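re: ur question from yesterday

yeah so i grabbed the chain u mentioned. its 73 aa long if i counted rite. heres the sequnce exactly as i have it in my notes:
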Amino acid sequence: MAKNKDYFGLSWIVSLILAIIPFTSWICGAITRFKEGKIVAGILRLLLGWGIIWLLDLVFMIMKHEICRLLPC
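ran it thru and got these structure tokens back, copy pasting raw so excuse formatting
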């Protein structure tokens, strides 16, 4: 079983449900990155969170149980 890494420590199934909905994925992804102290990544998610990043989040949430991290540092 994977660790509760994303979306506020919720289980991965709840995080997956939140990731399926584009608006909640956009907001939760940005908040998660800001909480991690990744200001640039949070701003990029706010600006570019629609479209391809949303699809990548879905794939990563299903496969790795975490959101896509384009900027790991």
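noticed a couple things. The CA atoms of residues 8 and 32 lie 7 Å apart. also The radius of gyration is 11 Å.
anyway ttyl
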